[in-house]
Write a structure and sequence with these properties.
single chain, mainly alpha, Helix Hairpins, 80% helix, elongated, DnaJ_domain, J_dom_sf, J domain-containing protein, DNAJC8
Length: 260
């Protein structure tokens, strides 16, 4: 992990040195050089810092920021680069975004806070390094005692802090997207449940009359069957009574006394 971090810092330092050499070689960069500076591999890391994009110190007044933005935006404007319009448009958007960040008082203040935190962390790191060297009896100063290297150390820390901010922003964005997706899926599921409930209720209402009619038919059949049974039973009872009456009304003949 430490080895990977060391390699990353070495790559960063090499890139930084190369960029600064280009700037020293030509203080007023041409359109092509500016476009290459903003779009070269790894530049995304640097473009997170709006001061770096506009090649300004963090204590530059807003009026100077506006002037630098105008000069750079003219250099990379797509209309000024007809043979390279697509890349020029990308560079122009990067410069415009950086200017909008610094033009706004609130976002410019946040950027300045990054510089302040970078300075505090760098000072703390240097103090820890000195303390360790003194404890080991090896202290003979540190490279950051030189103003140029101290400034470079702060610069590196600034870039890392901007990268951390961007990483957190992306993580929050992904988390927010996942949360919105989860809520939407829950809403869809609720809608489907409501639709199913409505469909069930509709079918229930439509089949109610059929159930009522079936019940009435059943009731009518039961009543008819009961009436028929009652009539049959009544007829049977009446028949029995008639037979009984017939038998009970029979009078046997009287026996006459025998005469001699």
């Amino acid at each position: 992990m430490a080895q990977g971090s060391g390699q990353e810092e070495q790559t960063f330092n090499e890139f930084y040195t190369e960029v600064k050499e280009i700037e020293k070689r030509d203080s007023v960069l041409t359109s092509k050089q500016q476009i290459d500076r903003l779009l070269r591999p790894g530049a995304t890391y640097f473009n997170l810092n709006p001061f770096e994009v506009l090649q300004l110190d963090c204590d530059t007044p807003l009026e100077q920021i506006k002037k630098k933005y105008r000069s750079l935006s003219i250099l990379v404007h797509p209309d000024k680069n007809p043979d390279n319009q697509e890349r020029a448009q990308q560079a122009f958007e990067i410069i415009s975004k950086a200017y909008k960040t610094l033009e706004n008082e609130a976002t410019r203040k946040k950027c300045l806070e990054v510089y302040e935190e970078a300075k505090d962390r760098t000072d703390m790191m240097i103090a820890e390094k000195k303390k360790k060297l003194k404890k080991e009896g090896k202290y003979d100063g540190v490279p950051e005692d030189e103003p140029a290297k101290y400034k470079h150390a702060i610069y590196v820390m600034v870039m890392k802090l901007f990268a951390d901010i961007e990483r957190r922003r992306q993580q929050l964005e992904v988390r927010d997207m996942e949360e919105r997706k989860r809520k939407r899926e829950a809403e869809i599921e609720e809608e489907e449940q409501r639709d199913l409930q409505k469909e069930w209720q509709k079918n229930f209402e439509e089949s109610r009359q059929n159930r009522v009619n079936s019940w009435h038919t059943f009731q009518a059949g039961s009543s008819s069957s009961s009436s028929s049974s009652s009539a049959t039973a009544a007829t049977a009872v009446k028949s029995k009574k008639s037979k009984k009456a017939k038998y009970t009304s029979f009078n046997p003949p009287k026996i006459k006394p025998e005469t001699r």
